[in-house]
Amino acid sequence: MPQQSHTISVGTTLLFTIFLFVAFFPGLFHSIWTIPASILPFARAPSEPVAPTTMTWFQKQFSLQAKSRGSYLVTDQVLQALPEIRSYKVGLLNLFIQHTSAALSLNENFDEDVRADMSDSLDRIVPEAGPRGEALYRHDAEGPDDMPAHVKSALIGASVTIPIKDGRLTTGTWQGIYYLEFRADRQNRRIVATIQGEKA
């Protein structure tokens, strides 16, 4: 019986060698493959110039009108104190109250009953005294409303952050900025406003 001769073409050998090279050395293959694009200027894709955006910071302190215990809508007062908002195309406004017995929040801006209900609800959650008038707190250096004011401040929080778009705060239709005062006597409160963003 005659023997058959098997011959492998040069092309097949070359393809098989390349396949093994790619399989065992993919990183090296990638480096070799991309050399022309990295050394030949005409092989590079033209890059579009990107205009730099300048992010700026602005900070200012202002005071709220003195109020006794209650929940107050202060959106207009904040906007009046911060005309700089209008110069920002996009950004964030952070309002921080520098006190431990008051708070800031976002909530209903239309019905005044919501503000009264908010204060009443917090008084029920954190009462000044027990059901029979007994003391509930160790810390009462400034009166029976001292420690409850601190607890309420911790529950609500000392700051709010609101996005800015095209020179305006992006609050929802029914959202307003609340100043919540937890002390019975009228208090002067300071706010630190910080804006970070891109100017128009």
TrEMBL record:
InterPro entries: UPF0047_YjbQ-like, YjbQ-like_sf
Keywords associated with the record: Membrane, Transmembrane, Transmembrane helix
Transmembrane parts of this sequence: 12-33
Annotated PROSITE patterns: UPF0047 (PS01314)
Pfam family name, one: YjbQ
NCBIfam families named among the record's database cross-references: TIGR00149_YjbQ (TIGR00149)
Family the UniProt entry places it in: Belongs to the UPF0047 family.
PANTHER family: UNCHARACTERIZED PROTEIN YJBQ-RELATED, UPF0047 PROTEIN C4A8.02C
Protein name: Uncharacterized protein
